[in-house]
Q: What sequence folds into this?
């Protein structure tokens, strides 16, 4: 690996020559493979990620594309260092329900991690500014199965009008990507001191834009995957000066090999993951608390005032009401959810967050809210794939048919299927190794595949060796 000379010079000065040489050597090694489990047991040979309860290192890379359990949301492939966000959540997010925003969320690793850690009754808003990435975020959130998530596609400045709306903010900001050099050689080609400076300025703009939507006393988790202090400690110091933010400490085991503050003259707590000291890629994290006062606003540009829109939604028709009765019977706790009716179907959203969703919808481009339950097709109601993935589905609502590996892969390719002759007719849930894969409509001589076409496995061949969970 040939690193940019200016990166070598600046990072050697930051870490010291000996530590830099160890870092450079570590970057020539194969990166570790790590996954985070979602409701299933890890492989016996997997080693725990010490700072994440459900995180595990694998001794070899699985053939993820051809593992049905991966597509069913049983695990998420996530870089181990970034799982350290769990420590900030566990140590500073209370047992009371909160509203949380993951501002730069795609592809969804941290969103699905924090959603599993939030107190019961909490709401997560997962936002992605890039339109070509937001659908991947929505897909991963859907596969994780939690209903109390809203996916949005907005610039950070769009959140400024939601004054004091969120209790917790996660800002995993776009950065120069120095910590990903080992996994993404393209990041090396894009690196330059000018790009580092540009990223640092962009990060401050993002923080400025989103700061008003954090409640006084609220927690902001700031993270990057880069090494330089411009994007890391210096931005934390800037938040202290500009917003009056308080930098908060985390309890960290010495055995984890986490490195602290590297900015000369600064003594506030931050947490760095360096590949020669920790098993993972480069990562930086700091936790700050917003002060209770409002003086910080004097340092900010003008904040637009949200004008509440009137709800002009048409009342549901008699047919819609009948469909809602049917679909409510599919839910394990129907009284806790309100059903929304759109042109293409019905969705469920938690009643306790209905007002919050109305406020979000006034200001933001909402891509997905809650769980899509059914598509209306003529007089028929087709159960949506999101329902199969969700914990909302009442057990026993649909018959379940077990399939083997070959049939599971055919289903995930959205190919035509034939079920056993004794399989029930109508809508059926397919299951692989006891895990729900999704719906088909069994019409006897064939089963119509209802897997989302945009999620299908596009490869038409299997590798010679397939390694699955």
A:
């Amino acid at each position: 690996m040939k690193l940019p000379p200016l990166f070598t010079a600046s990072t050697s000065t930051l870490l010291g020559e000996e530590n830099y040489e160890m870092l450079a050597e570590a970057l020539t090694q194969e990166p570790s493979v790590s996954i985070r489990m979602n409701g299933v047991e890890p492989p016996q040979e997997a080693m725990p990620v010490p700072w994440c309860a459900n995180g595990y290192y694998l001794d070899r890379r699985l053939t993820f594309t051809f593992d049905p359990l991966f597509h069913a949301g049983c695990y998420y492939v996530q870089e181990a260092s970034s799982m350290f966000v769990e420590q900030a959540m566990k140590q500073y997010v209370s047992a009371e329900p909160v509203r949380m925003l993951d501002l730069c969320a795609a592809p969804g690793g941290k969103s699905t991690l924090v959603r599993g850690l939030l107190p019961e009754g909490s709401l997560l808003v997962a936002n992605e500014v890039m339109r070509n990435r937001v659908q991947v975020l929505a897909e991963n959130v859907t596969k994780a199965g939690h209903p109390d998530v809203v996916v949005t596609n907005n610039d950070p400045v769009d959140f400024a009008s939601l004054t004091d709306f969120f209790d917790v903010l996660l800002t995993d900001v776009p950065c120069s990507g120095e910590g990903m050099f080992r996994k993404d050689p393209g990041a090396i080609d894009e690196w330059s001191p000018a790009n580092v400076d540009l990223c640092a300025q962009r990060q401050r703009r993002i923080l400025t834009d989103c700061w008003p939507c954090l409640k006084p006393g609220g927690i902001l988790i700031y993270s990057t995957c880069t090494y330089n202090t411009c994007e890391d400690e210096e931005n934390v110091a800037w938040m202290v000066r500009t917003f009056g933010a308080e930098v908060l400490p985390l309890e960290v085991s010495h055995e984890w090999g986490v490195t602290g503050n590297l900015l000369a003259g600064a003594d506030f707590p931050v947490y760095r993951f360096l590949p020669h000291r920790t098993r993972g890629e480069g990562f930086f994290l700091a936790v700050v608390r917003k002060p209770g006062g409002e003086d910080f606003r004097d340092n900010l540009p003008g904040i637009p005032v949200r004008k509440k829109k009137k709800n002009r939604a048409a009342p549901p028709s008699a047919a819609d009401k009948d469909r809602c009765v049917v679909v409510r019977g599919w839910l394990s706790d129907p009284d806790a959810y309100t059903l929304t009716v759109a042109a293409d179907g019905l969705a469920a959203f938690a009643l306790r967050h209905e007002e919050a969703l109305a406020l979000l919808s006034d200001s933001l481009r909402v891509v997905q809210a809650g769980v899509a339950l059914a598509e209306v097709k003529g007089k028929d109601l087709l159960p949506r794939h999101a329902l199969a993935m969700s914990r909302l589905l009442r057990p026993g609502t649909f018959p379940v048919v077990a399939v083997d590996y070959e049939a599971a892969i055919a289903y995930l390719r959205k190919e035509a299927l034939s079920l056993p002759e004794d399989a029930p007719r109508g809508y059926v849930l397919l299951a692989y190794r006891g895990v729900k894969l999704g719906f088909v409509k069994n019409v006897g001589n064939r089963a119509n595949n209802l897997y989302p076409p945009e999620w299908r496995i596009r490869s038409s061949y299997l590798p010679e060796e397939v390694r699955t969970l």
